[in-house]
Design a protein that fits this description.
2 domains; elongated; 0% strand; 175 residues; mainly alpha
Length: 175
C-alpha cells in the first residue's frame, strides 16, 4: 500500500493540473500555458492531454517548435486523429514560416503523414502531407540521385494529390 500511495498522489496532481490547464486555455491565457512545463511526461492519458493543451497554447503564441514538441509528446498509437493531423500541420506551418530546422520539420511531417496513411493508404490529409514533406526534403537535398529518390511518386492510393509545378519541375530534372 505504501508503494501505491505516491502513484495515486501523482495521478491526482496531474489530474488537478490538467483541469487548471484546460481552464487557462479556455480563458485564453496561452502565454502562461506555453511557458510552463506539463505536469507529467509519460504515456498516461492526462499527461498526453496536458501536452495537447500545451501544444495548442504554443501554436496560439506562434511558437511552432514548441507546438511540434508538445504534439509529438501527445502522440501515441491510440491517439485521436486530431493529434497527428495537428502535428503534421504544425510541422508544415513551421516549414512555411521558417521556424526551426526545415529538414527536421519535414521529417516530422513525413513520419506523421505515413502514420495517418497506415490504416488508410488513400487518406487525403496523409497523402497531402506526405507529398508536401517529400517536396521540402527534395528541395533541401542537392541535385542528383538522392533528390530524385525523395521525389519518388506517392503510392497509387495517393494519386488524387496533384503535383505542384515546383515538384513537376524537380521531377523533370531526374533521370
Amino acid at each position: 500500500m505504501k508503494a501505491l500511495l505516491p502513484l495515486l498522489l501523482l495521478a491526482a496532481c496531474a489530474t488537478e493540473r490538467l483541469a487548471a490547464d484546460k481552464d487557462l486555455l479556455a480563458r485564453g491565457d496561452v502565454a502562461r500555458l506555453a511557458t510552463q512545463p506539463p505536469p507529467c511526461a509519460d504515456a498516461r492519458s492526462e499527461c498526453r492531454q496536458a501536452q495537447e493543451i500545451r501544444a495548442e497554447a504554443c501554436r496560439r503564441q506562434g511558437d511552432l517548435p514548441c507546438a511540434i514538441a508538445a504534439w509529438q509528446a501527445a502522440l501515441a498509437p491510440d491517439s485521436p486523429r486530431r493529434i497527428p493531423l495537428n502535428l503534421a500541420a504544425a510541422a508544415q506551418d513551421a516549414i512555411s514560416t521558417g521556424a526551426g530546422d526545415p529538414a527536421a520539420n519535414a521529417a516530422v511531417e513525413l513520419t506523421t503523414a505515413e502514420a495517418l496513411r497506415a490504416d488508410n493508404p488513400a487518406d487525403p490529409e496523409g497523402c497531402a502531407h506526405a507529398a508536401s514533406a517529400r517536396l521540402t526534403l527534395a528541395l533541401l537535398a542537392p541535385p542528383g540521385p538522392a533528390r530524385c529518390a525523395l521525389l519518388a511518386p506517392l503510392p497509387t492510393a495517393c494519386r488524387p494529390v496533384l503535383p505542384r509545378p515546383l515538384a513537376a519541375a524537380l521531377h523533370r530534372s531526374c533521370p
